[in-house]
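Sanity check

After download, print the first record. It should look like this:
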Amino acid sequence: MNETESFKTSNREAIFILFTIVACISASMIHFQTVPHIPIVISILLLFGFGLWKRVSIKELQEGMTSGAASGLSAVFLFFFIGMLISSFILSGTIPTLMYSGLLIADWPFYFSIVFIVTAMVGISIGSSLTTTATLGVAFIGMSTSLDYSLAVTAGAIVSGAFFGDKMSPLSDTTNLASTVVGVDLFDHIRNMTWTTLPAFILSLLVFGILSPANEEAITGESLDILRNGLTDTGLIHWYSLLPIAGLLIMAVKKVPAKLALAVTIVFSISLSYMHTFTSYSDLASILMDGYVSSTGIENIDELLTRGGLQSMLFTVSLVLLALGLGGLLFKLGIIKALLSLVEKKLKKSSSALLSAAGTAFGINVVIGEQYLSILLAGESYKRSIDDLSLERKNLSRVLEDAGTVVNPLVPWGVCGVFITSVLGVPTLEYIPFALFCLLCPVLTVLFCLTGWTITHQKKNSSIL
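Expected structure tokens:
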């Protein structure tokens, strides 16, 4: 994206434009319950109208929008690789085997801790918090109901585990979004997130252990037996199916570029799948394009395993391009510069800049109720300030996840909050006190920003992606 704004906008105009865009997106998503794409398109048209009123040429407005969208092309290719990786992971048995391993420990003691661990494992394996919640989460809610355990604590453990998996999975769209918008290698981003995520995970695990029922009953869990047997019947559960995960972790440690690591893992996973099933080239191409389709007859299993493919990424890809195009216009018209000038005195310190980014991501979640936009808009707005302070951008991408991704399920009118309440039957305000992981991550990121712990600066001659 072109870093130099060609035009100036007054602070008053910038505030009015921002208020109008936020009002448009909020009304569309909260009141009319539309997808975020439509209000973003409307906002782009509003900016075009504002630009024409300021006598900016159509050509220059188009350049601003296209330069913004062009900065997301790297993300587009990464998302396509992720879509194919999910399909190949199911085909090779990697995702089913991880799920089965998690379900094997689901009836161990310390019930709420186990709910947290199992949903975290499944969340990492499929990279989707909402899918984990809508399938495995529903099974655990049913078990808790039959055992007369607290549904609020159960829902809190489910949400905590699902969003831990979503935050730390290389398959997650929000994880890829945060890294690509800011311009950070995917695996560098995930490694850096462990500084706040691991303490939040451990503390949550301990508290869920304390909250677990004192007198453990034998949990027969018919729903868990059905899930385990259903996964076994797929013929995809094999010890060697975990090898692609091991390879991916090794390449992450070796700092192999994300796209190369994903490409190698896709090829390896497909090759491995021929040890237990034969897939013709035409079927393989269809699976990589449209995703794997499970047909076990067990609804929860089929919902978990019917996923992946290039097509599954188009929703996110289109959102990224539209939002970055919007960001390009905001920069071209000088609106972002005008808004940042209002707080520029507070952006002279590393802690202030990162805390401002966290506050922006948190605020967008609360006002608009959309986690994608909280990551996109806050990332685009602050990454230049982070560069000016000679901070590594991975500090910003971590903040975006800590104050963006995991906050959305805590907002009753947020996309995730509404969805989770509808599928689990537990009101958002009831499970919030027990969504420990989601509560701890923002607190830890604020603490780390204030103290400077794990905040890293750019090395000389380092390059920005």
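If your output differs, re-run the checksum step. Summary of this record's structure: The first helix runs from residue 11 to 31.
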